[in-house]
# Entry
Amino acid sequence: AYDIAWKENSAYVSDRNLRLMFLRCNRYNSKAAAEQMIKFFELKKFLFGAEKLAKDIVIQDLSADDKKCLEEGFCQLLSNKDAINRTVVMFLPGLRSLVPVESEARAQFYLLMRTLRKSEDTQRMGMISIIYAVGEYQDRKKGVGISVFGRLATSLPIPWAGIHMCCDDFKEYVVMRGVITVLPAFVRAKFRVHLGTHMEVQYALRGFGIPAGSIPVSPTNSAPLLQNH
# Structure
């Protein structure tokens, strides 16, 4: 895929700003950055086809199903950044659309890459991820597509500064705690699992610098706070 993109538009592939994103994500380890860049183009080809490899993805490149995923809010940026000014992206699995997983992945690709392109601070400081599966926001697709979302998380040049998994299912909590123990140390240090009600997990998130009131879910009755969407 990298070779195809190079033949199509070498100026895009060799663009300094694009390459800097991968270098910043990998702490200026050039080998790791190059490997991730190859994975990035493979993923982009898988999601959008070879004809869109050598260009930035814009809203016009998304299908109706892709746009529906954006509108319904499964993946969204919080209206406020965290206590040290890092961008926070939130995943609400209960809002997943009944559309193909590839549409969900394309919507996430567009949103996250657009955010990175617009902010060098985000490229340098990283993003915080919140996966919010409490109450009615538990995954309505029961984990379908998790491998594709994993490819997104590792192929996009996002330096993940923290990952918070919020749930109210004790079995899920135990499983996630077990998963953390087998992760590499540098990932394990960034991963937290929070168990409890809406109010309990939102209070826990405050302890990690997530501003009160920025979560798009009421802490008392699970109603969506539309002003935060």
Remarks:
- The chain has a mean pLDDT of 91.
- The CA atoms of residues 198 and 219 lie 5 Å apart.
